[in-house]
């Protein structure tokens, strides 16, 4: 059994891993784990990742969780071109810096924006207080400002002149609120231009393919009682 | 000017960077940035790190934030012993796996106790009991996972550096306790005490009611942080 990637393309980090693997022609078996159906909670999946989260990787006996760890593993093992995760000390540090920052900053606001704007009303049939949504969108806005000012600046890509895993992780995050109808690029021409560059570097087909699931999320049939029950703990976290 | 590290030892990621640099004999100038005095919000510090956060590294013209990025940078540049950030790919990515989980479950969770027990009361802000309870539960769950899933990996000290104020973290957790002792023995008691000095001092001052009030300009920031406690 070769490399297996356990993914749900509804999830941002899963998309980043998927795009990276496909773009670099890394041969793998895709194992879809549907989060909304609770498939990540199965005992079988716990064998792959005891923390029951996606993305997860299985390479022979070796299992691995956490998207950043997986991206690093894939880039080194399959000798992806250096620009993805550079060996140069300072260039690499810039990538590490972005990956660390985004985990506790952009990730959270993108997830909550998407859920509060779309998944709650459409999928869960739950009302989100307008103040909560407004506050989340404001937070997203500040993160986007930081993304532009602190990371992108006047560069072509987030960490320099070439695309890296940082750009993949960032763009897949931003597509989350986009899928919910948030027009994040409308008033941000610099970010919009960067988005176009990333999409072109990845390849439009692959980019669309990776985002097909999330872009259709707004058309999901409403969750049944069992699903709602299962998602209850998440609901509380996502309503901040 | 050589390597400069902008730190505040009451911040957990600052402690990790400090201990790592000291343990590995990396020469640096310590630049203290007192968070409780709002020194990270000054114009001067903005020029060092526009994200206005510590830890920050300055190596000549090269500026770097985020403790993980800094730790990796230091380990490469100063060629620290392999075990800190192993060259073996599988061992190395295990560390990143831990760090990803740590960012979700430890950061933002353990530090909350300093806010609920010390800083919020200091400025007369109320934290709903429900949130305090939730935080304790999250701490417990995180410790359980740490023990069950991660113990055994000598990852960067990021996890050892956690201090949850008022929470007897290692009570009833002999494995974690033993691990913590191993880490402390490896680092040396002096260095550990030095790194934790400021935060224990704050806790002590709070207990004696001698903790100075933060500057009023810093209140809105503090209130926002308190509000964000899940």
Automatic annotation (TrEMBL), chain A:
Transferase is among the record's keywords: yes
Pfam families referenced in this protein's UniProt entry, alphabetically: GST_C, GST_N
InterPro entries listed in its UniProt record: Glutathione-S-Trfase_C-like, Glutathione-S-Trfase_C_sf, Glutathione_S-Trfase, Glutathione_S-Trfase_N, GST_C, GST_C_Theta, GST_N_Theta, GST_Theta
Record field: catalytic activity: RX + glutathione = an S-substituted glutathione + a halide anion + H(+)
Keyword terms of this UniProt record: Cytoplasm, Transferase
GO MF annotations in UniProt: glutathione transferase activity
PROSITE patterns for the chain: GST_CTER (PS50405), GST_NTER (PS50404)
Cell location: Cytoplasm
Domain GST N-terminal: 1-82
CDD domains: GST_C_Theta, GST_N_Theta
Domain of life: Eukaryota
SUPFAM superfamilies found in the cross-reference section: GST C-terminal domain-like, Thioredoxin-like
Record carries keyword Transit peptide: no
Domain GST C-terminal residue range list: 88-222
A single BP term in Gene Ontology: glutathione metabolic process
GO CC term (a single one): cytoplasm
EC annotation from Swiss-Prot or TrEMBL: 2.5.1.18
Family designation: Belongs to the GST superfamily. Theta family.
Assembly and interaction partners: Homodimer.
Protein name: glutathione transferase
Organism: Rhinolophus ferrumequinum (Greater horseshoe bat)
Gene expressing this chain: LOC117017202
Automatic annotation (TrEMBL), chain B:
GO cellular component, one term: cytosol
Superkingdom: Eukaryota
GO annotation, biological process: glutathione metabolic process
Entries under InterPro entries matching the protein: Glutathione-S-Trfase_C_sf, Glutathione_S-Trfase, Glutathione_S-Trfase_N, GST_N_Theta, GST_Theta, Thioredoxin-like_sf
The protein's Enzyme Commission number: 2.5.1.18
Record bears the keyword Glycoprotein: no
This protein's name: glutathione transferase
Species of origin: Rhinolophus ferrumequinum (Greater horseshoe bat)
